[in-house]
Amino acid sequence: MKPNESSKEAETSAEKMFDVSLTIGIPGENVDNKLFDLLVKWLEYKAEMAVLALERGDSFLQLHVQGMVRVKTSSTRILKREIKEVIGWESNGPVGESVCLKSLHYKGLHTVIGLIGYCLKDEGASHFKFYSKNVREEQKAEGRRMHSIYGASEYKHKLELTAANILGRALQFCKNRVKNPLSITFMRCIAEMIRSGQYILGFRWLTIAKISRLRAERIWRACTSPESVEVPDVEAMFFGVETTARYFETQEQKTSAGDQDADEDQDADEDGELTGNDCQSRPAHDQHRESQSSSWMKP
């Protein structure tokens, strides 16, 4: 028996089952779609269980492969070498290529279910490709739920939604995740952003004057159970009847307006021109003005 055959036999005899997270990418470049297809063919006969996704992620936006595989091997080092052979990177891979394998430590989201949800985070995007083997639909659903609640904060910081950035965030989300932007409304886009678990509501949404209990409860539910958020929740949280144009001013404008109102109140107290009824009528007036200014907009 040849020496290399002997070592190969020793390696095979020491094989055991591993649950491994997998990330394959090229810094600054997109991986080829063919790479994903090659891995799928390999997993069909190699893996006991697997999920594999072609995704962009939230930060770098380059196409890369993310996955979780359950395979028999003697070490992650040997498995990495086998994967490089499968995708053709064993000797002349791209400059800077990365094949990263980590055995699951079964804590937090570094679990089978957690990584199933993590691999589904780009679901619905035009670039997204997904493969699974021996994964039940209920496991996918639980993975989505776990990632929507814990995923974004565990793997990277969540993006805060404020009155100043919500439109820009929505445009970026729509560009990266929605196949046909014309097929989704602004309300639905915000709902999907929250459901993704990658965004968190800024605290200023809770500091609106005359905030209702309904709005507060909807915001609380969006934070604790984002996957349950629907369009009516978005309408109640951000565009309820008590929201006026004043909320959408910048904090600097708010401070300036507050100082001006204080001066006006002081003058009114001295002159006797501004009554309590006048103060209470302002929100209704602002609401009427807002409805008039938006009447020309397309539905």
From TrEMBL:
What InterPro entries does the entry give? Replitron_HUH (IPR054424)
State the Pfam families in the record.
Replitron_HUH (PF21859)
- Compositionally biased spans, kind Acidic residues: 260-273
- What are the residue boundaries of the Replitron HUH endonuclease domain, all occurrences included? 22-145
The lineage's top-level taxon is: Eukaryota
Annotated region described as Disordered, given as residue ranges:
250-299
What's the protein here called?
Replitron HUH endonuclease domain-containing protein
Q: Which organism is it from?
A: Riccia fluitans
